[in-house]
Amino acid sequence: MDKRIGTYIRKARIEKSYSQEGLCKGICAVSYLSKIELGQVHASQEIIQMLFQRLDLYYETDSAYLKEVKQSIEECYHLLFHAFDISKLKEKVLNLKKNEKRLSSSPFFLDFYLLENISILMKKDIPSLQTVQEESIQNSLHSLEEYIETMDQRQYELYTLSNALLYEKEELFEKVVKLNPCAFYTDAYGSWLFIKGKYVRAVELLQRAYDNALQEGSLYLALDAKFSQGMCYTSLDETLMLESFQIAIEFAKALQKEDLVFAAYYNIATYYMEIGKMDVAYSYLIQYEHKDVLYAHKMAICLENLHKKEEALTWIHKGREYENINDLDMLMLDVVEYRLTHENYKKDNIYIDMLMHTFERLQKERAKGFAYYHLSYVLEVLEANRKYKEAYYMLKKFSQKF
Fold first, then answer.
1. Are residues 254 and 265 located together in one domain of the fold?
2. 258 lies in the same domain as 152
3. Number of structural domains, the chain?
4. Which of 96, 205, 314, 328 has its CA 20 to 30 A from that of 13?
């Protein structure tokens, strides 16, 4: 018998205030129930079913269904560890969730809930989850804590990573990489370090992830690791940034990941914008036009600095029309538009308030690079208003990210 079933029975018994004597009366001996709960005996399906019935639990015994679920679970793990396709993983998990009652009373309930949590947690663009999602995952992981002793190695590793991502604990990332230094876990750790602005350490982990991915034959993970490495180098080294992104672009083209081809060109352009080479940045942006609000934002800034005001405003208007825009994106566009339409914006309180509000939100809601890019505009305003001390502390604060 699966040891997890015994743990499931014990948990339900305690929740429903059953004593062992009360639960097993007329079914089996107390000592035998104790062994079932500890996973020390292989109880018959008949006994398990009777215990489940008394606890008002459902126990799945359909062999055809269980075989189908097992296959689906393994496909989910493949999507996660090898194909690295989080979108397809989410689709697969949602499909499984349609029969959650049956699944939650099968030997695969742990795998399902772990995969469901990780499919939500594997988000790199937003450091924090929505409150409802976060609470849901917290509750799920807390309930799964009861089953730690019954988890197999793969489940425990995924449980550890889920906690690392949710609670942002570096020691848990280190733990899971020690448990299994495969490409997936190493890439997850390196990518998290990148989001946290710990670029030097991230580069090291991502190189290991890239090497491991090639050895494991996972080209999608190799692409992800090399792309993230390129992102790190945008804050460290121009030559290595270009080399990393070029490799990522070749992988992305071969794997038909057009969104990542665009993202590579976009981030190279962003790098050159940060160092004031707007003409070079523009040359990268126009290579791969994209209907995306952040692309429109970058185009507007490039054209602003190339003194092409009308073209810049055109891109502001385009950006506002895209479906994927949110209120923070809108604020970023508003800041650029205000500069374009107000000559003396540096000492304009409306602009200053708008910029500082946007800057504060970017620090909380986006990866560090977003706030860092807007730092130059914040310093520009502080200098124009002779707030040199504030500018110094702001610059000092952001220099610590390296």
1. yes
2. no
3. 3
4. 96
